[in-house]
Amino acid sequence: MKNVLSPARIGAAFVVAPAVIVLAGGPALAADNVSVSNTETVQAHLDASGHVRDARVYEQLALQGHGTVTVSDPVSTKNLRNLDGFGGFDVKGANLVANVSVDGERRLRAVSDFTKELPLKVTATYTLDGKKVEPGDVVGRSGLLQVHYVVENITGRDQEVSFDDGTGTKVTRTEKVVIPMVGSLTTVLPSTFTDVRSDEAAIAGDGHGGTKMTFTMTLFGPIGSPRAEFGYAAKVTDGVVPAATVSALPVSPLDSPSFRGGAASYKGGADTGLELTSGATQIDSNVLKLRDGAAQLLAGLIKLRDGAKDLNAGLSGKAAPGAAKLADGAGALKSGTGKVASGAGDAKAGSTQLASGAAALSDGIDQITAGVDALPVSLAKDPNFQRLKGALASMKAGIGSPTDMTRSTLLGGLNLLRAGIRSPLGNPLVPKDGKTGCDPLATSGTTVCGAADGIDLIADGLDKASKAGGSIDSLIVAAQGAYSYVHATNPTCPALDSNGLPPIPGAFFDAPAGPCYAAANVVFGLKADAGTPLPGLSDGGIKVQTRTAMTKLGIISGGLSGDALNGIDAIKKGLSNVGCNPAQTNPQAADACGVADAAGLVSAGVDTLVASIADQLGAALGQAADGASQVAGGAKALDSGLGQLKSGAGQLDDGAGQLKSGADQLSSGLGDAAAGSGELAAGLDTAAGKAPALEDGASRLSAEGTTKLVDAGKGTAADYGLKYALIEAGAQRAKAEGMAYGAPAGAAGATAYSLELAGMSGEGSRNVGRGLGAMAVFGLGAGLTVLRRRWL
Amino acid sequence: MRKALLSGALLAVAAAVIVLLGGSFGDDLQHVALLGAALGGVVGLVPHQPAWGRLAGFATGFVLAWVGFALRAAVLPDTAGGRAVAAFLVILAVALACAVSAGRVPVWSALVGAAAIVGAYESTYTNAPSQFLDESPTAATTILFAAALGFLATSAFAESFAAGRHERREPAADAGWDLEQDSPTTTLDSVLAGEPQ
């Protein structure tokens, strides 16, 4: 077969082969949803020192789905070339525009020159035996080679970031924020490199005698640093500079699984700092309150101490002596009321005898009247008649006048009795002190107080003492205050109830000699109501008993002022009625004459009456008889009043006895209270002395502890807050600027950087040598061939 | 048979020497030693007139294939289609060059030259097409050096073997050896050109 078809075959091949290639692309497809993702790979070649020689970017669009879609991908248009087909791309502006039909999966690839600044700057420096050398100087040399790499993320720019300074205030600060990038530098050292050492690299063998080294880099703060420095040292023979590859890519620390935990830890640190600051601030605030409270406590303790001292002084200097005096006075009162009771008994007996005597007198007068009636006219001359006149005069004199104040006459005795009941003596109608006019301090004379006056004075005093706000209430308040303080300082001592009384002593009280028990007894002794189930207090405290005594004394005073005095007045009127009318025959009339008056009239007018003695004497004796009857009636009334007086005096005696008992208890309790208040004052004095240390300690705790804790919390919150803000800002930059040229709208995208750091192996000279050697050998072979043909 | 043994032994020695020279001429030489020795041996063993045409063809194919790599790296798409076009163009260029030489440059040696650079550089190129300028010279000089040693090892003896073959043709034929089996009567160019035998 001839070779005549070769040109035809060649032409056919020219036409058919591309057609076959183009037709292999597949049919167009119906429209449907198509997802687009865009990846960029920037490949840069650097010399051994790190200077960029060239860089290009590979764009790759991956389309999945079904349908036709028009993509507009931002690219570098310089030397843009299609890697997936023979045709070019439509370029609009800085975008690669393609209308792509997709049925399942489709891919578009392009390469162009990288026209931007690389985000990483790589610098490599070399020292041989400690001297800095150029990379080419290493080739063929031996010694200790040290290689130092510096990889720097140069995407940083000043940007404002906001973070919490730990006090809830947002702080804005200008910081340099980089696009977060992570990567690695990998190099393989040949087997001529021995004793390889590095503090930063992961070192492994490459299986061919060489050493594979990998340096990892986290080129952003605060997790890493925008600048990474590392390197290695090795002993080299016939040295070379190994090539290295730096691979890096932007990463969002908030989304990357590798860094999400670290970013979260910074956020946690910031949050913890905030909580620490907040808590420490609260603690510091409370410590300051404690300090202020300690100061107030100190002031209160000082006041309390002073008050306790005053209380102690009052209890020991006034209340206790006063209570003692009260007890003494109550004893005297008891003695006096005993005498009153005894005197009332004597008066009762005397009044009984008086009633009996008056009755006998009336009977005698009746007998006299009957005898006068039987007297003859010659009676005036009769010696017996004369003796009768003398007897009448003596009787009148014995009865005495109404103003008599002597025991020698009947009226004098009555006046003395009346004055003993009610004073002033001889002038009962002139009031003094608003009631009786007697002088309570007088011990003799006409102003000495009577029994009823004394009772009234006692009743008034008791009434004033027991009234609301009276001295007993003042004592009660003081006693309650003392008890409340004891309660405040002794937790086992119960508080006063709503009635101002402590609970009935029980297990909660301390020992009977203790301050709680003593203070409770004081309160009970003063304030307990009648019927209180406490031994010795069934009749109530001093206040109740005082009211009872006052009431009883009022009853006694009423009896004395009423029945007793009225009875005495009636007796006096029956005995002698000043200004009486001798013609008055009604003995009940106000101007009826008494026995003495009648006797006077008889004695003075007996001579003139002799003539009509029968009539007149009979009438006078009749009046005498009536007066004697009135005396008898008054004596009976007196007897009744004195009975009441005796009964009241007995009750008064009982009340005085109770008063004395309560006063004794009060005196004893106040003594204990005085002793307790002294201990209280001493304890408060000690407490007041210690309280400044509490204030000082609180101040120091605030200044040296909690304040520093607050500062530490603020520092922690601000430090971690700033770092997390930098992470957030970096993450935002990674999302917005992570791609070298960007992705089509709506498409996912990513960019990776590969920086090829050239090695220095002397390969250029080797190539020249090999090339020349090859030509020489080929020439030698050709020469041998020629020689062989000619000479052999 | 002696020819095969001698040429094979020489090539074996050449291959071993190539490997051993790797220390001085680059480690890559070890990896292409057999390929280079074999291809150089082919160029040296296959007779062709003029003799320089073998080397010219080897060089032509070698250079065109190298240019093919450059086209792939710089212009053609990184697809099967792009590679097919490159291969198509290289082979076509080889054929055109050989055709233009009017048979002085054999197609086979040009194909051997193309195969040499492809065998030595294809995998390296595939790994880093953009490193063509950096890496292809190393691959090219390495395989060239290996092929030159292979050529040297065989070329000096190949002509004598060919001459001896013609001298001994008749005795061999008399001895019943079918020398046609070892000594083709048709040139390789004729075979490649599709000429009738």
From TrEMBL, chain A:
Q: Does the keyword Signal apply?
A: yes
Matches recorded under InterPro entries: xxxLxxG_rpt
| Range of residues in the leader sequence | 1-30
Key words, A-Z: Signal
Domain of life from the UniProt record: Bacteria
Q: What is this protein called?
A: Putative membrane protein
Origin organism is Oryzihumus leptocrescens
Lineage, opening ranks: Bacteria, Bacillati, Actinomycetota, Actinomycetes, Micrococcales
UniProtKB/TrEMBL annotation, chain B:
The transmembrane segments are: 31-48, 55-75, 81-100, 107-126, 138-158
First and last residue of the signal peptide: none
- Segment Disordered: which positions? 167-197
Keywords associated with the record: Membrane, Transmembrane, Transmembrane helix
Record organism: Oryzihumus leptocrescens
Q: What is the protein name for this chain?
A: DUF1097 domain-containing protein
